[in-house]
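Z., the sequence and structure:
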Amino acid sequence: MKINSFRLMLREFQYDDYKLFSSVFSNEKIMEYAYMDCITDENKMKEYFNKVLNNCDTMENKNSYEFAVFTSTDEVFIGFADIEIKYHGAKVKSGEIGYFLLPDYWGKGYATEIAKRLIELCFNELKMPKVVASCNSNNFSSENVMKKVGMVKEGEFRKERYKNGKWDNELRYGILIEEWNKVSELCTTLMSSNTYM
């Protein structure tokens, strides 16, 4: 699967993407607030990469989508994005979105653009009723992204994440399809009337 946004192209990982994949999950700065630890063992990295590749090759009943993220203009790799699908019985209940960007691309609005495009994919193409995202409570940048895309704070789970020898809280945000549709309608109205916020 390949999807595009205004400045970015997201595609599922391919067999020759190992170095790109590794550059994200071996970077301590990127993984500082992540739920998982930084991967320093190459065998573990290859095992994780092969798991992602196998999932990308799965055509039906996928439990997740993992994307390599590139700039549209010059096709520079900038990070990783994913959707984890959650089920209620046989029905899709929600998708949890996530994203890791290389530090050189922080603070440029790319994470917000990725989150918006993943939410659109979840609602418009995967027909989900809800999309959620979570972050370490100390990761203010990630929380701001969730707010910018219209997500609503649903809770704070105390001592949910263990990292660097201490427990941290986890924040959970979510948005329903009817809420997203209202936001989309408002944006369309503002653009057509040349009114900007």
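The domain at 2-192 is CATH 3.40.630.30 (Aminopeptidase). The CA atoms of residues 2 and 11 lie 4 Å apart.

Let me know what you think.
H.
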